[in-house]
Structures are given as C-alpha cells and as structure tokens.
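Researcher: Next entry in the queue.
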Amino acid sequence: RTNVHASSMSVSRQRGFTLIELSITLLIIAVLSVIATKKILNDADDASAAATGTYVNSAAAGLERFVIMNFTSLSNGTSVSCVATATQPSMAELKTLGRLPTTFPSFAPNQQQLRFDIVRTSCPGSGCTLTATACLTAPMTVRGIYRDDLVTQAMVSMGGHGGRSHLNAGAIVRGASFSVANPLGNVEGVLCGSNAVDAALYDQFAKMNDTRDPNFQGNVSIAGGLKVGAGSSGSTSCALGEILTSGQIISRASNCVSRAWLD
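Model: Structure for this entry, 263 residues:
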C-alpha cells in the first residue's frame, strides 16, 4: 500500500512539473512571437521610410530637369509653356512636359502626396540661383503614424539631396547641402528633396552673344536656318551668311549675293 501511495505521488509530481514546463514554454513562445512581430513591423517601417526617400528624391530630380530646360524663363520670372504657375509646377504638368515619366506614381509608398516649388535667389543676373524642392504635403507618416526617427531615416537615404524640418525649427527645411524655407510653414517632420541650379551650369555651353569658340568635335545637325556673322564671295565680303535647310549657303549684302551648295 505504501509503494502504491508513493508511486501515485510521483506521478502527480511529474504531472505538475509537466504543466509548469508547458506553461513556461507557451509563455516563451508568446514572447518570441511578440518580438518577431515587432521586428517584422519595424523592418517594414524602415523599408517604407527608405522607399519614401527614394520617391521624393526621384521627384526632385524631375523638377531639376524642368529647371534646367527653362532656366532663362524662370530666372527672368516669365511664364513657361504648359505650366500654369512657373515656380510651382504640378506633377501632371511635369509628366506632360516629359520631366517625369508618365508612369511615375501620384502617391509616395506611404500614400502621401508631393508639392513642387522653385525659389529664385539674386535673379535675374549672373548670380541667379534656382532652388527646386519636392516636398511631402504633410509631416511624413508610416502606417498613418508620425515617427521622427523614420523621417530622419528617409532623409539619410536620399544621398545628400534630402532635408527635413525639425521640432522647434519647423519653418526651415535643412539637409546636408541646403537650407530653405518650409513651403508648408512652421510644420515639423516635412520631408523634402532639393536641387540648386545656377547660371554657372551654362558656362560650358555655347550661348547667345558668346565670343568663345565652341570647338565642336563632331557633326552638328541643324533643324532650321542658321545665320552666321560674315561670308565672302571672291574678293567681295558680304555682311551676312545664312545656311538654309535645303543645303544652300547664301551670303548677302547691299552690293553682293553669293550662293553655294553644301555637299
């Protein structure tokens, strides 16, 4: 009888230890599940922040192309064809002009939209600088939640072209290489991409009234007529030369007209 009682107590203890061990195992599994779920969400948030930075950066590059192609009009403050407000083109207008691909998404990966702004400094003139910014239209969020660390992470992913507004300094968007007024006002957490274009960019190109020799090294195609400063016919100098699209070269003056054909 004693042996039976002892055996029964041993079995009870084993059952008790089994329940405790099972409870501990389930608790560990639950904790690990929570940690794993949190890590998955954090990884997804990090990826969303980096993707949003890439998106804003790409949009800013499209705006930079618009500025380069319309630098003279923008620096002079005149209108630009196909754009309602030259210094605030819309995404649709940039797509129409081919500065952004027609397939460029209208929303960032975090489902926020963009605005485009161009700030003129010392324009017009040789020191004119056009600062082009593409900014989210509200503080950056991920899964609908604002997280300051993710805004910074998105900015860092933009290769030096990104900037953001900070707490207690929301009126300014600052990046590694620029500082501009926040187009949304005094708002914290606004993510922007920015590029600056100035007249120095065009020093490498031939331009109106340029006295330098462009020294072209290859073929140059001409879509329309080309007028040159002087021409000659034998010993008679003509004041104006013109190359027609038909291939003729004509030199004219009050006392001479010369015509030749291009081979």
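Model: The chain is about 35% helix and 25% strand.
Researcher: Noted, moving on.
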